[in-house]
Write a structure and sequence with these properties.
With about 400 residues, the protein is of the alpha+beta class. It has 3 domains: about 5-150, no CATH class; about 155-295, no CATH class; about 300-410, no CATH class. About 20% of the residues lie in helices and about 35% in strands. The strands form 3 sheets. It has an 8-stranded mixed beta sheet. A 7-stranded mixed beta sheet has the order 9-10-11-14-13-12-15. Strands 19-18-17-16-20-21 form a 6-stranded antiparallel beta sheet.
Length: about 400
């Protein structure tokens, strides 16, 4: 099931990748990435053993022809000049390695290796997830003390036909030794919420200490008072529940990409369904998804997001100087005592609109009704220390910018 993590460096200048001495000299200047050995042969190409902190990776490195496929998703924004360079680029450098152990850490280390090889680059084509990463983002992520978001390990692709039907499926999870995920018979009105279901389940798989087997139950969130308890079902079995499906059928799976190691997400309605493995198609719950569904983040992911938001607070404060920008902050509030976990306080993470900054504290207005906090309502104003921020968004005239792509505020 496990596939290698194959990335392609797209340089600013094609001649930069033709001489290995360039990237070798660059790595020698790196504080965290070292070259332990260089080997290989004509058949396998150059194999470089990198040490990143205490981990070692055998990495295949070789020049390759570059042509960005039309289905590749732009993970970041590119300027017109950058798009022009991308169109003109015909050569890149492949950087291929296997993930072992913590997949998030392996992805982070691969990004750090690439950044050490070429501190300035145009982009990175992450082939398993079919994403094009900005070179500026790679530099920012590689120099961060916080790992990139786990969602970078995969992409959820939406395939549409002539009608309203949408087939959602992931790419990238196989490099982590996991099966890919799908939702069949989605539609244009609900695919965004279905996407969030896939993302939530994928993050659960990536964070779990034990393998998440098909049939295992996972509660991804809630909608209209109902828990969204998901499970994965092998696509061959799942197709029996979708007799009217026009996309994602057996005829669409005659390749190795969509026909092996992939499961369809379905819903368990209740405990009896879990016990007896009675599956319900996700689209049967569409009528409950219109009323502000809430999807859960794990505590680990919440801590990671919070650490990144705090690490990049300087970008947020700089953006606040531009009064044309609207800024939202996510802050964790202690929930009412009746919702505590065995006497331990819990938090609900909700969005505020920033109105002022004073003495390392933010003054902001609540933008939504809390689920589990009764002493504050939408429109109320609160004052919180910067360290309480767990996420932020800056709305410019062109786009929204968060901690992950804070380089756009430079």
């Amino acid at each position: 099931m496990r596939e290698p993590s194959y990335m392609i460096i797209i340089p600013m200048k094609e001649e930069d990748i033709m001489d290995p001495k360039i990237f070798i000299d660059n790595v020698f200047k790196s504080e965290h990435v070292k070259i332990k050995d260089i080997g290989g042969d004509e058949e396998s190409g150059m194999i470089v053993t990198f040490q990143v902190d205490d981990a070692e990776y055998a990495v295949g490195v070789s020049p390759v022809d570059v042509e960005i496929p039309p289905y590749v998703r732009l993970a970041h924004s590119f300027s017109e000049d950058e798009f022009k360079l991308l169109d003109e680029t015909r050569a890149g450098l492949s950087v291929c390695m296997d993930f072992e152990g913590d997949n998030n850490k392996c992805f982070y280390d691969q990004i750090r290796i690439i950044n050490a090889m070429y501190p300035e680059m145009l982009a990175v084509l992450d082939c398993p997830s079919e994403k094009l990463l900005s070179g500026k983002w790679v530099s920012l992520a590689a120099n961060s003390s916080v790992l990139p978001a786990p969602r970078y390990l995969f992409t959820v692709q939406a395939v549409t036909g002539d009608g309203d039907e949408v087939w959602l499926h992931t790419h990238g999870l196989k490099r982590c030794g996991l099966y890919e995920l799908e939702i069949l018979c989605s539609d244009r009105d609900h695919y965004n919420n279905h996407y969030k279901m896939i993302e939530s389940f994928a993050l659960h798989m990536l964070e779990s200490d034990e393998p998440v087997e098909p049939g295992d139950a996972f509660t991804a969130g809630q909608a209209s008072g109902y828990e969204l308890t998901l499970t994965a079902v092998d696509w061959k079995e799942a197709l029996e529940y979708y007799p009217d499906a026009e996309l994602g059928t057996a005829e669409d799976r005659e390749d190795d990409v969509h026909g092996e190691d992939t499961c369809v997400l379905m819903i368990y309605k209740n405990d009896n369904a879990i016990e007896n493995m009675i599956y319900t198609p996700v689209h049967d719950f569409n009528r409950f998804l219109g009323d502000n569904p809430m999807f859960y983040f794990s505590k680990d992911e919440t801590r990671r997001m919070s650490a990144l938001a705090v690490e990049r607070t300087s970008y947020l404060l700089k953006a606040f100087e531009n009064k044309d920008y609207e800024i939202l902050l996510k802050i964790g509030l202690v929930v009412d005592e009746e919702y505590w976990d065995n006497g331990k306080p819990q938090k609900e993470y909700i969005w505020f609109r920033l109105s002022d900054v004073k003495d390392d504290k933010v003054i902001c207005v609540l933008t939504q009704e809390p689920y589990y906090v009764s002493n504050i309502r939408k429109g109320d104003t609160g004052t919180y220390p910067l360290s309480d921020i767990t996420d932020w968004l800056v709305y410019t005239d062109e786009r929204s910018i968060g901690p992950d792509d804070a380089y756009l505020l430079m």
